[in-house]
Design a protein that fits this description.
Elements: E1 2-4, E2 7-12, E3 15-19, H1 22-25, E4 29-32, H2 38-55, E5 64-67, E6 70-76, E7 82-87, E8 94-96, H3 99-114, E9 127-130, E10 141-144, E11 151-157, E12 169-172, H4 173-179, E13 193-198, E14 201-206
Parallel strand pairs: 4-7, 9-11
Antiparallel strand pairs: 1-2, 2-3, 3-4, 5-6, 6-7, 7-8, 9-12, 10-11, 10-13, 13-14
């Protein structure tokens, strides 16, 4: 057991569980240990604790919460505590656990650290600007501009773009995530950077514009 912000975090019977969140949300929270090391799930629980302690939210059954660039959900179990579920990678629903969320954050962080950059994680509530061809799986040039909080700043362009800015579409981040999981790991690159995809090869560079 460890203590984080006066909340106990324990490994019990294949779960990481909290002790002390009841005073904030009248429930404890637990997450199933899957294919990752226990410390990875502890980091997820710490993230939830920070959210609860700092924001003092009202949490209800099936409520969603963003975990960096992925989506988690609270589901009430038979022990009257919340199990963590996560969005399926294809957007088809939710599964118990958070292995995909852990993988997404790890891969995004690794891409940024390889470039000596600090990740700037987009989230499911933000928007992305795309051209034709993105959903169809074509090679992408992605450029990230400094943007308002409701936008990721990403412009994702393919060879189908006809240079008419009116043909670009603003869509939710999650639509792109579910349609193009192959580019998700690049989308935490910070403002002012771009990636160029060409036949499965990807080059990352600072935007000179």
């Amino acid at each position: 057991m460890i203590t984080y912000r006066d909340i106990e975090i324990s490994l019990i019977n294949g779960f990481i569980e909290t002790g002390g969140l009841y005073s904030f949300i009248t429930k404890e929270i637990r997450v199933t240990i899957g294919k990752n090391q226990p410390e990875n799930y502890i980091e997820v629980i710490k993230y939830i604790i920070d959210y609860v302690v700092d924001s003092k939210p009202v949490i209800s059954e099936n409520q969603n919460i963003g975990y960096y660039s992925w989506l988690l959900q609270f589901r009430l179990n038979e022990d009257n505590c919340y199990d963590l579920y996560e969005a399926n990678s294809d957007g088809s629903g939710f599964n118990q656990g958070c292995d995909t969320a852990i993988s997404v954050v790890r891969e995004q962080g690794e891409i940024c650290w390889q470039q000596n950059l600090i990740p700037l994680f987009p989230n499911f509530n933000q928007s992305v600007v795309i051209s034709d061809g993105v959903y169809e799986g074509k090679d992408i040039e992605g450029i990230r501009y400094d943007s308002p909080q409701d936008e990721t700043g990403w412009y994702l362009i393919t060879d189908d773009y006809n240079d008419d800015i009116k043909s670009l579409k603003m869509v939710h981040f999650y639509h792109v995530v579910f349609a193009r999981p192959d580019i998700l790991k690049y989308l935490a690159l910070p403002f002012g950077y771009r990636f160029l995809m060409h036949h499965d090869n990807v080059k990352i560079c600072k935007d000179d514009v």
